[in-house]
Amino acid sequence: MPELITDPKLLAIIAALSYLLGSVPFGMIVTRALGLGDLRQIGSGNIGATNVLRTGNKGAAAATLLFDGAKGAAAVLIARAVASEDAAQLAGLCAFLGHLYPVWLRFRGGKGVATFLGIMLALHWQIGLACCGTWLLAAVAMRVSSVAALLSAASSSLWLFVFNDGRMLFLAMILTILIYVRHRTNLKRLKAGTEPRIGEA
What we know:
The protein contains ten helices and no strands. By secondary structure, it is mainly α.
């Protein structure tokens, strides 16, 4: 963990604003703007890019992926600019929680993979790229989005050791645990052999 040097009052403000930024449901905004319907009534009902892809609009899915990643990265970069590294990590965590549990949607949000990748890229771009590469390789090899997500999240702690940066280990472990919790239904389907492949309903 980084040294706690930012004023607690500023940390509280950063935490609240980062949560609000993370809670913006870009998947719903994109699908509604393109006339694709209510994302909560499509596929799994999830607000993330994988479910947006089930609308058949790859551009909408790509936009959702980018926006969801960007909000996590933006929270980290803004916090780092106005405070320090402790604030940056807190901002990343709160933006992530905002995406998973947005107040606007009765705390029923996404599974956090794109936001996780955006946060990791902003905190340490080499580790972020390594996590993205892990996701891409797993997605291409396995053709199962949830497997790629779980492997990418789990790999983050390994990449921290590879790049010799232990300051992010606690945060990476929390984010990984939360991603696994949010993928618990996927884990059940994987065990049962019923998890859909990328592009399937």
